[in-house]
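<instruction>
Derive structure tokens from the sequence
<entry> Chain with its tokenised backbone below:
===
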Amino acid sequence: MNKIELIQSLIDELNELPNRNEEKLDKLQKRAEMIVRKVFGESSIYLKQSEKISFYPMVYVLSLDSTTDEKYYNESWNSGKKQMLNLFNTMLEELNSFDESLKANETENPASINSRKIFVVHGHDEEMKQAVARTLEKLQLEAVILHEQPNQGRTIIEKFINYSDVSFAVVLLSPDDMAYPKDSSPKDAKPRARQNVVFELGFFIGKLGRERVFVLYREVENFEMPSDYSGVLYIPYDDSKRWEIELVKELKACGYNVDANKLV
């Protein structure tokens, strides 16, 4: 299933949910949480909104009239179901809007979409950069690393714009800088990616859409992630190389003909 089909399956399951069936509701909520995390990311606002939806009365009401009690609980259940359906439909609308935008971009710029070039945004972590570049080469793709390209008398930003004509980007977040709010002290400093890396992350999300931006991060204690990119899925970079499989999956989802067997 693609992302739109996954959200549609949640809508279908919710519509078929029997009245006040707690077991099936629990199953649906757990499945919905898993799908939302995968489709929109760990920091998605949809996760927080779904947690606020209640299918039960906020206050237990004991009435001498059982008919009144039944009506009260049914109203609470139907209200929760309506809120959840509205949330799922909002997710679906966002995905459909993005899908239409992507199709329009493909029509306007087919040469770029079919490009085998993958832009690699990186900081000072040489190991991450080389590992990603070699992985892309194994997949018969071309890693575009800015400092390896000729300057030809251009400024950095001119050079960056010229070489950013790609249809997919891999962004490497490594703990290269330490920073803290001005109203705090140095002991509150946290590791974070360099500002140029965060800038280029935002650039490619705006240019390509978040589905065509693959973000790898080096796992360290208190690492500060960019906070304004809701829905972006951050993948940990580790020695198990699970990230390679995740990269192949995302490339395939974007239409790249790549073979994971070439990584062996």
Notes: The first strand starts at residue 117 and ends at 121. The chain has nine helices and seven strands. The domain at 114-263 is CATH 3.40.50.450 (Rossmann fold).
